[in-house]
Write a structure and sequence with these properties.
It contains 38 helices and 24 strands. The chain has a five-stranded mixed sheet with strand order 4-5-6-7-8. The chain has a five-stranded mixed sheet with strand order 10-11-16-13-12. Strand 6, helix 4 (135-143) and strand 7 (149-151) form a beta-alpha-beta unit. Helix 24 (611-617) packs antiparallel against helix 25 (627-638) and helix 34 (813-822) crosses helix 36 (856-867). It starts with a strand and ends with a strand.
């Protein structure tokens, strides 16, 4: 027979993650398990775990595990209707669609938003076996003319007898809620967390009599032991087993208005025109590549996807959109011809097979970046254009991590936040493991429960940009629900993996702040922008020199300390170099970065241990850089197919990588042995492959982003005022605003404070050599009142004096004081005395009161309070004067001899924590003062003595010494 399993995706109830639930079902003797959650969000997780059980055996070269041979997973869902509890098990495609429709309708009824055409009222689904949780619920079904059965349980035996006596159908599969007392405890804990209540005030939905038992024990009990019940239960299993859910076949929508058209012919026509426009005289290589791609796209029936993406992009932004097509889709010449990507894949040697191959089972997806402040409008236009019944964004599934689990459990136990903060300091690093806090016996139970809760499903959120358009109503394929914290947007209940494994093809519509930076700067520069800024910037000597010296603060994708230092160490600023560097900077690759630098500088001879490395990795001196390199090496060394290698590539970026990677390693080593590869070469290759864990990039992604980097860097090299104004206004960089102003000053720009008559909302360039702070930076000033000030000034002209401004705009005291403290009214106090100006809002300085004048140090304090930046005195200089000490300056780091001790005050403008191989925390920090900035490293012993890490925005007194790495000065905190 079969069991009904409740997983942790039943929020506030389920105690078992997918792997544990499947193991429990098999342990109890079942070979058929129905996903019996509230909703269907957990079904792909259960399916994925079951598929991995079989896949792991294949990777090990073993025959199928007899314990799991023939094990079947079925889909069902529980729901509430008219106050009664039910479950539905679909047995046709129509029944599955009806179930999704019900779940979606109930979700949208619970959180009203835009009406979904055709969704209708939530009604029990047809073409499903309907099971009522009690006799009253079954009666309600029957009164509506719907067919159903009673889901019986031994502790409700009397109810089952009554139903049987009345000639009603009764079924009794076992519901797997929990197995042990610890499972029931987890259920109660989850109820408390879901209800935001304490455990003592939370009633469990289940009781000890609901505990799961072995199948034989269950089937010996009444009501299952009743022959009529056993037959009815067997009939349900037979009925649902006759239906196979659609899974793995791609679901693609046609572009609007092209339904039924010859899409292959249409795509070919558009691509030919695009190639003619992109290449004045396309050579044979381009034309051959075009034909090869078009033939594969046609054979995979994927033309509609390219045309759908093109339709969405052009409908949102017109025929010449400013976008950045990236990810694997940018490897396609078809994408380039359609204007969906910005980098020539032929000239850049991008591998189309990273995007699409004949073997590919999961649908590829395309990433399109829009300016960050345009993205939401683009997504809304997709919903409007294709209909809210056909579009949904992809969900993210959030799982409890150590910190969140501990906080949730502590709150369920009624612990106050103050006590939790104390424990946080005690643990010193939540994600390092909660067991370190076990020395405190008062927290034994909380720590035990938090450790058990870690990894369980927590809540839904929204994928950054994944959007799916279906050919017909969305519920024919998946359930969907209102997006949390997003108006007029629906999301699937499945995450990225579930969507892709089912076959729904997503389009990633993402936001990129640097596209807005470039857009806004170009708007200011006007006809000073080259006609082809992409090509021009890549060949511009000044831009290349700027990147080669690491002068790339504010430059998209090239401004992190690690990337700037790598540029400085290699001393090259070409496009190809930046493409490599932007992919090479990843957490686990630091040892190979050093080898790459030495080889690129000619300081280490490189003799490839295998000809494959020279053939595939000559551009990067034998170091694996891109995701494609992993695929190429696995194919060449281990004899894998592209599809097999791509599965490893995907695994390396997933959260379950550590668990599954050993299986792939064994298969890789076995394949290399068959190919006769030397063991040392295998070790070297696998060591590099392991560095791709966590996150890594494909070459098309890096090349597309490098194109944006060059356009951004060109603006900085030639028009720094417009550049910094746009970077700070769009608030999307690696550093705080004060750090960008520091870099602006190092580029000889004058920084002018906020001004009632001169400032706009945004930061603005004043000529080529000055930068004006925008009123957006003034914290405490109400945005609507500032907008009113700007509108009044635009309509009626500049303000004559402060009285004129206050009379015309009539700001609140809060806004007036914030603007005044930030210096916005300084033009009416030439000596900078903001103290007297503040009295103006109250009618002037009272007689007999002599306020102390505002000096430069006071002004700096006010600016820090209201704008998080200073205009005259750097925060480090403030501390140096007021607190003493720190005789040295940040500039001395790059000018002093290695090993010399230094002590200075500095502002922390960037920080990044990492862990050593032993698990200890260390930190990379960027310090700045009024003389320069420097990169620094704080090793574990320093952080232990300090008892806390450095944080952006802190002004600190630091001691240490200068060290050199490839001639580059790095400050080692002592």
């Amino acid at each position: 027979m079969f069991a009904l399993g409740i997983s942790d995706f039943s929020i506030g109830e389920g105690v078992y993650p997918a792997k544990q639930l499947l193991s429990l079902a098999r342990q109890l003797g079942y070979r058929d398990l129905v996903c019996w959650d509230r909703g269907v969000a957990g079904y792909p997780k259960l399916r994925g775990v079951l598929e991995w059980i079989h896949e792991a055996r294949k990777l090990e070269g073993l025959s199928p595990d007899p314990r799991w041979t023939g094990f079947r997973l079925h889909l069902g869902s529980r729901f509430t209707w008219r106050g009664h509890g039910y479950g539905a098990l679909p047995f046709t495609d129509a029944g599955y669609a009806a179930l999704n429709r019900l779940l979606s309708a109930q979700a949208h009824d619970a959180a009203p938003g835009s009406e979904i055409p055709g969704l209708g009222a939530p009604e029990p689904p047809q073409d499903c076996v309907l099971l009522a949780e009690d006799l009253a619920g079954l009666d309600a079904l029957l009164r509506e003319g719907l067919y159903g059965a009673l889901l019986a349980h031994p502790r409700r035996a009397q109810e089952a007898r009554k139903a049987l006596a009345a000639g009603l159908e009764v079924v009794a599969p076992q519901v797997l809620r929990f197995r042990t007392a610890e499972g029931l405890e987890m259920h109660r804990l989850k109820r408390a967390i879901d209800q935001q209540a304490t455990l003592v005030r939370t009633e469990a939905l289940w009781d000890p009599l609901d505990a799961a038992v072995p199948r034989a024990d269950w089937e010996a009990r009444f009501p299952f032991g009743e022959p009529a019940v056993a037959r009815a239960t067997a009939a349900v299993l037979e009925r649902i087993s006759g239906w196979n859910m659609h899974w793995g076949k791609w679901v693609l929508a046609d572009p609007l208005g092209r339904e039924g058209a010859d899409l292959d012919a249409l795509l070919r026509e558009k691509v030919r025109a695009g190639v003619a426009a992109r290449f004045k005289h396309p050579d044979g290589e381009v034309l051959v590549r075009m034909e090869r791609e078009l033939q594969l796209i046609s054979s995979m029936e994927f033309a509609r996807y390219f045309l759908l993406v093109e339709d969405i992009v052009h409908a949102a932004q017109g025929a010449m959109p400013r976008i950045c097509g990236r990810g694997s889709g940018a490897a396609s010449l078809v994408s380039y011809a359609l204007g969906l990507s910005n980098v020539d894949p032929v000239a850049t040697n991008l591998m189309f097979e990273r995007f699409l191959t004949k073997e590919r089972k999961d649908p590829p997806d395309m990433d399109i970046d829009f300016a960050w402040d345009e993205r939401e409008d683009v997504i809304q236009k997709v919903f409007e254009r294709y209909g809210r019944n056909r579009v949904a964004m992809v969900a993210n599934h959030a799982f409890f991590k150590a910190k969140g689990a501990l906080r949730a459990v502590a709150q369920a136990h009624g612990r106050p936040d103050s006590e939790l903060k104390q424990l946080a300091r005690y643990v010193r690093g939540w994600e390092g493991g909660l067991v370190r806090a076990a020395e405190n016996p008062a927290w034994d139970t909380i720590l035990r429960q938090a450790l058990a809760l870690k990894g369980h499903f927590h809540q839904f959120s929204v994928h950054p940009g994944g959007t799916v358009v279906t050919p017909g109503p969305f519920w024919e394929h998946a359930a969907f629900q209102p997006a949390p914290a997003k108006d007029n947007v629906s999301t699937t209940t499945w995450d990225k993996d579930g969507v892709e494994n089912y076959g729904l093809v997503k389009i990633d519509l993402l936001g990129n702040r640097s596209l807005a930076v470039i857009r806004d700067a170009y708007e200011v520069l006007g006809d000073r922008v080259p006609k082809d800024p992409g090509t021009h910037s890549r060949g511009d000597a000044d831009t290349q020199a700027l990147l080669a010296r690491g002068d790339s603060i504010g430059v998209f994708y090239a401004e992190s300390p690690a990337t700037r230092q790598l540029q400085q160490r290699v001393r090259k600023g070409g496009f190809e170099t930046l493409v490599i560097h932007s992919s090479l900077i990843r957490p686990a690759a630091y040892r190979w970065v050093d080898r790459y630098v030495k080889r690129s500088r000619g300081e280490e001879a490189w003799e490839p241990s295998d000809p494959v490395f020279n053939q595939l990795l000559s551009e990067s001196y034998g170091v694996l850089v891109y995701q494609e390199d992993v695929i190429k090496v696995c194919v060449a060394l281990a004899g894998w197919s592209h599809h097999e290698a791509d599965q490893l590539r995907k695994l390396l970026g997933r959260s379950d990588c550590e668990e599954k990677l050993p299986y792939y390693e064994a298969r890789f080593r076995g394949g290399c042995a068959v190919q006769g590869v030397q063991p040392s070469t295998v070790d070297e290759a696998w060591d590099m492959i392991r560095t791709f864990r966590g996150y890594s990039f494909c070459k098309p992604h890096s090349a597309s982003y490098a194109q944006v980097s060059f356009e951004s860097a060109w603006i900085k090299a030639h028009h720094p005022a417009a550049f910094f104004a746009s970077v700070i206004t769009n608030q999307g960089g690696y550093y705080p605003a004060i750090a960008y102003l520091g870099d602006a000053r190092r580029h000889r720009l004058v920084v002018r404070g906020p001004d009632a008559n001169a400032s706009a909302w945004a930061f603005t360039a004043e000529g080529d050599q000055a930068l004006r702070v925008g009123l957006m930076q003034v914290q405490g000033a109400l945005a609507k009142e500032v907008e009113k000030l700007l509108e009044d000034r635009e309509q009626r002209g500049p303000f004559a004096d402060l009285d004129d401004l206050l009379g015309r705009v009539k700001p609140s005291v809060t806004t007036a004081e914030a603007l005044c403290a930030a210096g916005t009214f300084d033009r009416w106090a030439p000596d900078g005395d903001r103290t007297r100006l503040m009295w103006a809002r109250l009618g002037g300085v009272p007689s007999g009161v002599r306020p102390r004048p505002t000096d430069a140090f006071d002004r700096a304090d006010l600016e820090l309070q209201t704008m998080d930046l200073t205009l005259e005195i750097h925060p480090a200089a403030l501390s140096r004067v007021r607190k003493g000490g720190g005789p040295d300056r940040v500039a001395d780091v790059g000018q002093s001899k290695p090993g010399r001790g230094l002590s200075f005050w500095a502002l922390v403008v960037a920080d990044k924590e990492v862990r050593t191989e032993g698990g200890d925390r260390m930190q990379f920090v960027t310090f700045e003062d009024d003389t320069d900035l420097c990169e620094a490293v704080a090793f574990p012993d320093v952080l232990k003595r300090r008892q806390r890490p450095f944080r952006v925005g802190e002004v600190v007194s630091v001691r240490g010494k200068t060290t050199l790495q490839d001639g580059l000065a790095v400050f080692e905190v002592g």
